[in-house]
Specification:
single chain; alpha+beta; 2 strands
Length: 128
């Protein structure tokens, strides 16, 4: 008994392309019912089922490997963002807020100085 055809397709599971077993065909052995024992047909059916289950197990193990690798990569990305990128961004946001606050304070101070100088000029012109 030999495998005549192994039909596989691919499916997308959580963004990962994995193989999916769609069919398995065996070559039918020529059985001479007069020369072989009566249990041979049942044995061939049992072996065919066993072989199908083994092939299906291999395909499922490959799916598990692919999904496990994607899970590992995703976990690394999550850790990168949680432990590195987000703290850096928060620190940068804090520094930007401080700089904006300083710039706003400086702008208010410049406006008060300009207003005071403008008032001096007006009072100096009016007093002359």
């Amino acid at each position: 008994m030999r495998i005549a055809a192994l039909d596989q397709e691919t499916a997308n599971v959580a963004g990962v392309t994995v193989p999916v077993l769609t069919g398995l065909r065996f070559e039918s052995p020529q059985i001479d019912f007069f020369e072989t024992p009566a249990w041979l047909e049942d044995a061939i059916a049992a072996l065919s089922e066993l072989t199908r289950l083994r092939v299906e197990r291999r395909v499922l193990e490959r799916q598990k490997e692919l999904l496990g690798e994607e899970l590992r990569i995703t976990a690394q990305r999550v850790n990168l963002f949680e432990k590195v990128m987000i703290p850096r961004a928060e620190d940068s946001i804090r520094i930007i807020r401080i700089a904006l606050g300083d710039a706003q304070t400086a702008a208010v101070a410049r406006a008060k100085l300009a207003k005071g100088k403008g008032a001096e000029l007006l009072s100096g012109v009016a007093g002359a």
